[in-house]
Design a protein that fits this description.
The complex is a heterodimer of chains A (370) and B (308).
Chain A (H helix, E strand, L loop, with lengths): L16 H20 L4 H13 L2 H26 L7 H18 L4 H31 L3 H21 L23 E3 L3 E2 L1 H18 L1 H11 L1 H6 L4 H28 L10 H11 L4 H25 L4 H15 L1 H10 L11 H4 L2 H4 L3
Chain B lengths: L2 H6 L1 H26 L7 H19 L2 H25 L4 H24 L12 E3 L9 H5 L1 E3 H19 L1 H11 L1 H6 L4 H27 L11 H11 L4 H21 L6 H20 L17
Antiparallel strand pairs in B: 1-2
């Protein structure tokens, strides 16, 4: 698997248009699936949208679900920008949550300081987890980061489960969970039940990352290496150091997300703690095209699908899994831009400069099918 | 149970083979796909799709072989979607693979709930366990490889065949050329598109066998997200095995061995989670210390634009 695959060619033009059309297309296919399985398609989609945005509580739930996706998604975007693929964010998220939980219950500190200590511990732990081993292995031994981050992800999850099921972090009692964190370490709740101040953490992270990507020399180096590591090396950039940094920062963000989830929502860690945020975040980064603003919007969309899906199940009786199908379809249509181009050509919708639809330019389309 | 008992128990090695098989099949599938130049991280989704439809059709038709056949057809359908987007639409292959995995996870869980409620029927016909006469009577070896699910033997046969096809036939050479230097392939008058379609579809076929084996070979049921990352492990096994069939087989068996070890340690004083960590740590150590730089096929992941 070559480095640098997912980062390319998505310019600012069409940056909004393509994703929006992809979402619409995915909703259409999703409603076809609903209709094929005996549900009213319009009612299903209506229930989904209403469930995600229907009233202030639901909007708060949507944003709450989006917080971890935003922060982990930003982390994954850092590695994509550098032409790397951090597939192990799930494990880094666990490591961050474990570190934050431990500092949250084992140490006493004054309120704000305690929160900062938890965040710091989570970022350091997860940053080392991702940066030190996969980063150094990639930079100096050429070890494929897809494998190392994924392997360490499993290590982290099993380690976490051991710690809370039978290890030193298990709370007294029979349940496989840690002790609850001190009140001084919890984030304030903005809207009950669980929309926390973690949203500010996410937004600050996005803003800082935007500045780093597009206004700092580090971001410039990162993106140059992502586009062409050979040219970057000739220009005197240290590719090895940037690989370590990119994976380290990526892990720090995943860890920060884990901490925000513990301090804001869960307040303790248990064995089935994560619901796959580390994997969904990959899709969030891809949909947001590795641009921090795009990642924030994509995370809100995916948070809406999660929340909306649950409400759709309650109110319209359609299984919430349909929302996950729609998420997959969105990612599919975003990647398969050519489908969208074909539709644009078909219906004379506004599109980019090129006069003909993509298909006409490639006679191979026909040839290859024989 | 002490360590010697565990390591010398034929059960451990028989389980290694059984648990390594689905990973090996998907890793071999990935190898074919990537040798043709298409990065395939969709093995997880293809396995999951086949696992669901194997149970679905097996219980519908009352015949496990028909279930397997139709499950493979569904896996091939997913493969076709992947190939079409990757080859014709020249979409980003990693993104497409992620999308296929997400769609498969959502769709199989959705259909499971619609057709079976929370769990699949418990009387689903299963692929048979075969006893090899003679071999099964041997001490130790017989207990390990003499009495396994039919798919385990099919898998070993497929690996012999795959190695031969990939490295000793004209087709294998052509397939590899599409992944190394597609321009040269086309100069020789061959269709890169067709070769890549074949690579992805052979990969989907093998992954689907692995998925179906999980649901109607090992467990006799389908549960939500039952592949639980085996497709990603297969991806690692493929890279670890340096894109060769036997390398992938060895790596897959290492993972199978570790899962088996995890089961063996359950109920002992050693926390089983710490045993389960072992293969992953071993992989990282091997990658950093021994294997060093892994070199994928040169044109792996790069969409090919047909020359005019």
């Amino acid at each position: 698997m070559s480095a640098g695959t997912p980062v390319r060619r998505w310019g600012a033009i069409g940056g909004v248009f393509f994703p929006v059309l992809s979402v619409l297309l995915a909703l259409v296919v999703g409603s076809i699936v609903a209709a094929a399985t005996g549900y009213n398609p319009l009612g299903t989609i209506g229930a989904l949208v209403d469930g995600a945005f229907g009233d202030p509580t639901r909007i708060a739930a949507t944003l709450s679900a989006a917080i971890p996706l935003m922060i982990v998604g930003l982390g994954v975007a850092v590695t994509f920008q550098a032409g790397l693929f951090n597939i192990g964010a799930e494990g880094q998220y666990w490591i961050g949550a474990l570190a934050a939980t431990y500092v949250g219950y084992a140490i006493s500190l004054p309120p704000i300081l305690h929160i900062l200590a938890c965040f710091l511990a989570a970022m350091i732990a997860a940053g080392i987890w991702a940066g030190l081993i996969p980063g150094l292995a990639k930079a100096y031994r050429g070890a494929n980061e897809v494998i190392t981050t994924m392997m360490l992800s499993y290590v982290a999850i099993y380690l976490g489960q051991y710690l809370v099921e039978s290890g030193p972090m298990k709370a007294p009692g029979t349940l496989p969970q840690s002790p609850i964190i001190a009140p001084s370490a919890t984030l304030p709740i903005l809207v009950q039940p669980q929309f926390s101040a973690g949203i500010f953490v996410a937004i600050v992270a996005a803003a800082v990352l935007w500045w780093l990507f597009y206004r700092s020399s580090w971001g410039y180096q990162l993106r140059t290496i992502g586009r062409n590591p050979v040219a970057a090396r000739y220009a005197g950039m240290s590719v090895a150091r940037q690989y370590v940094l990119a994976l380290g920062v990526s892990g720090m963000l995943a860890g920060l997300a884990g901490a925000a989830q513990i301090l804001g929502v869960q307040h303790r860690i248990y064995d089935s703690f994560s619901s796959g945020y580390g994997y969904t975040a990959i899709a969030v980064a891809l949909l947001g095209r590795n641009n921090p603003i795009g990642v924030v919007l994509a995370a809100i969309l995916f948070g809406a699908l999660t929340t909306g899906g649950q409400m759709m199940q309650i109110n319209a009786g359609v299984d919430a899994q349909l929302a996950n199908v729609i998420e997959g379809l969105i990612v599919f249509f975003v990647a398969a831009e050519a489908i969208i181009r074909w539709i644009q050509g078909r219906f004379h919708l506004p599109r980019r400069a090129s006069g003909r639809p993509q298909h006409a330019e490639t006679p191979a389309v026909v040839e290859g099918e024989r | 149970m002490d360590l010697a008992t565990i390591f010398l128990s034929p059960t451990l090695w028989a389980m290694t083979l059984s648990l390594g098989t689905p990973i090996a099949l998907a890793a071999l599938g990935g190898t074919f796909s990537e040798r043709s130049g298409v990065v395939n991280i969709a093995m997880e989704g293809i396995m999951l799709t086949a696992a669901f439809f194997a149970v679905f059709f097996s219980s519908l038709t009352g015949n496990a072989w028909l279930g397997l056949l139709l499950a493979v057809a569904c896996g091939l359908g997913m493969g076709l979607l992947m190939a079409w987007a990757a080859v014709h639409l020249r979409a980003d292959q990693i993104v497409i693979g992620t999308a296929v995995n997400m769609i498969a996870a959502g769709l199989t869980a959705y259909l499971l709930h619609i057709f079976f409620g929370q769990g699949s029927p418990s009387n689903t016909p299963q692929l048979p366990v075969v006893t090899i006469p003679g071999l099964a009577q041997l001490p130790f070896v017989g207990d390990v490889i003499g009495h396994q699910n039919v798919m385990v033997y099919i898998t070993i046969g497929l690996f012999i065949l795959a190695h031969y096809v990939l490295f000793h036939t004209v087709f294998g050479l052509r397939l590899r050329s599409a992944g190394e230097n597609p321009q040269a392939t086309e100069s020789a008058g061959l269709s890169v598109y067709r070769l890549r379609y074949l690579g992805v579809l052979i990969g989907a076929f093998l992954s689907a066998l692995g998925g179906a084996y999980l649901s109607i070979g090992v467990l006799n049921s389908f549960t939500q997200n039952m592949t639980s990352g085996r497709g990603y492990i297969a991806l690692a096994a493929m890279i670890f095995g340096k894109w060769t069939p036997w390398g992938a087989f060895g790596a897959a068996m290492l993972f199978g061995w570790a899962s088996a070890l995890g089961y063996m340690f359950q109920g002992t004083s050693v926390p089983y989670q710490l045993v389960l960590i072992l293969p992953y740590v071993l992989t990282v150590v091997a990658l950093v210390g021994l294997v060093g730089r892994s070199r994928p096929p040169a044109a792996d992941g790069i969409p090919y634009v047909h020359a005019r």
